[in-house]
Amino acid sequence: MKRIFLLLNIVLATGTLCAQQSLTLEQAIDLALKKNFDILVARNDADISKINNTPGNAGMLPTISVNGSGSYAYNDVNQKLSSGTINKYSGQSTTVIGANTELEWKLYDGGKMFITKRKLNELQSLGEIQYTSRILGVTYDVIDAYYDIVRQKQTLASLEEVIRYNKQRVAIAQTSYNSGLVAKTELLQAKIDLNVATENAISQKYVISEAQKTLNGLLGKEATAKFEVSDSIPSSSVPGKNEILLKLETSNTDIRELKKQIDIADLTLKEARKGSSPVVNLFGGYYFSQTNNSEGSTLRNRTNGLQVGGSLSIPLYTGGETKRKTSVAKVELLTAQYDLDQARLQLNIELENAYTDYENQLKLLEIESENNLLAKENMEICLHRLELGQTISLEVHQAQENYVQSSTRLISIKYNLKMQETKLKQLVSSL
Question: Model-level pTM?
Answer without folding.
Answer: 0.82
